[in-house]
Amino acid sequence: MDGSLSHHDHDSHTSSDFGRRRGGWITFPFITGALAGLTLAAGGWLSNLIVYLIQEFNVKSIDAAQISNVVTGFSFLSPVIGAIIADSFFDSFSVISISSCISLLGPDVLVDTLAPQGRMALIPFYHISVRLRRSTILSTLDPPLCPHGFVSGNSITSNFPVGHPSWDCSSPNSLNFEVLMTPNLVEHMSSLEQNDGIEYGIVLLALTETFNTLKPQPCVKEPELCQPTSKLQHAILYTAIALATIGVGGTRYTMATMGANQFENRKNQATFFNWFFFTLYTATVVSFTAIVYVEDNVSWRLGFGLCAIANLIGMVIFLCGARFYRFDKPQGSPFVGLARVVVASARKRNLQHSSGGSKDYYYGHGGVTDDLVGSATPSSSFRFLNRAAQKIEGDIKPDGSIGKPWRQCTVQQVEDFKTLIRILPVWSTTIFLGTPVAVQYSLTILQALTMDRQIAPHFNIPAGSILVIVFISTAISPTVIDRFLWPTWQKLTGQFPTFLQRIGLGHVLNILGMVVSALVESKRLKIAKTHHLQDQLGAIVPMLALWLFPQLILVGIGEAFHYPGQVALFYQEFPVSLRSTSTTMAALIIGISFYLGTGVINLIQKVTRWLPDNINNGKLENVYWMLVVVGVLNFGYYLVCASLYKYQNVEGADCNSGPDSEK
């Protein structure tokens, strides 16, 4: 970790609102603390979603993987929407606050879906006040809740959380108990109210029967006997997932932008980003291990409850720092200016290109801007766009300002649009870089469910936690790369690798990860056939899940190369007006990749028999070999795009410059 938290510079004393100093390192614990809580909450339910759908909603394994891909994809697409909203309409603080409240609702709704099977319906986290007569309880309930004797005293009064099937009958005068709310008990309590004067106030008791139908009955061994999920169950499930996912979109990357905005010094911004991503990865690892372990080995209800608590704590921590934050007003969407370039150039399509030099182009109200890209005149590439900046009488007011914004643009806006066009091919290669990884993530969890996950006498690796190996290797690799690999590279070549070279190395490692995945799956299927497990749904293949680690480690190391390379490249090469949005482009790529991964799996299911619901009877290794071919073809496409690309910011073309090198 570079930098420290002991900086005491002017950042701690800049920007005031109503006479109070805002921003600086005093905001750091609030932002990173909130990030930790919100990341724990999001990772706790998202990482184990496939297992949850299979075990609790009787969703077929491949369908569960598809749903997980869609949800994960949206969780990476939604931050882009959150960033645009924060930049264009509201400030980051408002977006984060509202989104954290929305995300809090998701785990709560998921908790409500976890009523036990059969006739019992638990209502977690709601308290019920009950006052019952002793004689009535024992005479009406069958079986009696106190089978070993009566409780002395005329009445008992208790506040009890519904959820645990225990009743302490040891106290002669008072009783603290927890009751299973069954339809039988509800019926009895209704009759007691009329006959024996029972007094009770029950929150949401009227919805007990609804809660009892929030998920289907568990499957028996015969899959054809599984109860299908009803429309109501689907509606509540997807509502919970949507709320939680929207919350992720409005917090994660928006919080990174807000944190960086607390500093003016770029070195402090770089230090903040280092700690930000360290906190993000650490919280992700904890959620993928500890919370998933609770969900798999204790209860889903407790696991989702922990997610809700973590979300609430994160939200409270963030709001507690409000008095110290520096608030930046939204400046309007930069995408509007880019859209105007397209419209203006189209409306001026019949205009002859200017031959009069810079005087025929519009540079802004103050003349030629200092941060103009390239020369004083528009660049010759994509020349048809230059018409948008050509001056036409009537489009500019007498004071020099734009009179018709959808007919007249500045040269800077035109050059910004050209910059995006130039980088678009490189950006597109990273989409197909992420798609095989997205497919691998889902299929690896399905593989883990069919393998021996025991690594100690009394400890099994939760299937949803298997992907934590990727995050651990990604978190550790940058230190090794920065301390050892890049200095060695510089000694051998005389220069640091460029961002494009870093991304290229990530391509190679991803391809190797897919090759290892195919080889491991071939071995797993061979063992399954040897033990005649192909036709047994849910059969565990006697092969350790540790065999999945090498492929995940390779993918994690590959991510340590290409993910920072992408973020740095986009931050450096994107127009200044799009710097905030540029940091979310990597998230956009991941989101699109997961949706494409869903499409790939759908296509494979339609045209092949490689992915049946019982993967022990499939050809999953063929899917991985196909991903190897896709990766090789995409790498070739990337090499062409990278060789043709010319850096717009030559100063920052290597890894020891730009924002990520300010240590």
UniProtKB/TrEMBL annotation:
InterPro entries associated with the record: MFS_trans_sf (IPR036259), POT_fam (IPR000109)
Organism, scientific name: Prunus armeniaca (Apricot)
Highest taxon, organism lineage: Eukaryota
Protein name: Uncharacterized protein
Pfam family, one: PTR2
Subcellular location: Membrane
Similarity field: Belongs to the major facilitator superfamily. Proton-dependent oligopeptide transporter (POT/PTR) (TC 2.A.17) family.
UniProt keyword terms in alphabetical order: Membrane, Transmembrane, Transmembrane helix
GO cellular component: membrane
Principal subcellular localization: membrane
